[in-house]
Amino acid sequence: MAAGRAVASRLRILSSDFCLLTSDLGVDGGDARMYGKGMPDEIRKIDYYVAAVVDKPGEAARILSALEQAGVNLIAFSGFPQGARKAQLDFMAEDSAALKKAARAAGLTLGPKKTGFLVQGEDHLGAAAAITHKLSEAGINVTSMQTICAGAGRYGGLFWVKPEDVRKAAKVLEAK
């Protein structure tokens, strides 16, 4: 039960269907600023893996607890319904190899590696708008984006672009 409370204490609810685990990572500082407001945003490419699971109470708790017990540090996690009686779980971990090993041990089948982006920075008006504006100017469409205030004046978020646009988006946003 303590493991479940530890996982739950790190969750920030974005909607009834989506959760984001906020990261404990710090921001480097750098020189680039998104519209010159506040500290620079740090944007980095992240690997993520998708799993389809039965949509039933306790399934996410079982899987997240297994990952926690295996020492997998999740940068982010999202889960949402996918059709009748199924759910899609997305996992972004500091160590992809550890995630894959722990998932196998938990009986979880992960799909192939995909790429998304993690953004973190000082919370300010227009933080998400600055990112989408830069991508739009480069002709890149955002497939999905979720951002959240992390407290203490910080925010974080995840966003995705089409696979063929990942390299260009990383260059435009100076992602690490």
Question: Would you summarize the structure shown here?
Answer:
The protein has helices at 2-9, 59-69, 96-105, 127-137, 166-172; strands spanning 11-13, 19-21, 42-54, 74-81, 86-93, 114-122, 142-151, 154-161. With 176 residues, the protein is α+β, with helices and mostly antiparallel strands. The protein has one domain: VC0802-like.
Tell me what the structure shows.
- The protein has a single domain, classed as 2-Layer Sandwich (VC0802-like), CATH 3.30.2130.10.
- Helix content is 27%, strand content 35%.
- The protein has helices spanning 2-9, 59-69, 96-105, 127-137, 166-172, and strands at residues 11-13, 19-21, 42-54, 74-81, 86-93, 114-122, 142-151, 154-161.
- The strands form 2 sheets. A 6-stranded antiparallel sheet has the order 4-5-3-6-8-7.
- The termini are far apart.
Which features would summarize this protein structure in a list?
VC0802-like, alpha+beta, 5 helices, disordered N terminus
In DSSP terms (H or I, runs of 4 or more residues), the helix count works out at: 5
CATH class, anyone? Alpha Beta
Instruction: Work out the helicity level.
Output: 25-40%
Overall morphology:
globular
- CATH architecture assignment: 2-Layer Sandwich
Q: Quick one: CATH superfamily? A: VC0802-like
> Main β-sheet: number of strands, strand sense, barrel status?
6 strands, antiparallel
Secondary structure class reads alpha+beta
Listing every helix as H and every strand as E from the N terminus to the C terminus, the arrangement reads: HEEEHEEHEHEEH
The oligomeric status of these chains comes to: single chain
Q: Give me the CATH fold name.
A: VC0802-like
Lateral arrangement of strands in the main beta sheet: 4-5-3-6-8-7
Question: Roughly what fraction of the amino acids lie in strands?
Answer: 35-45%
Could you tell me the number of beta strands? 8
Report the average pLDDT across residues.
82
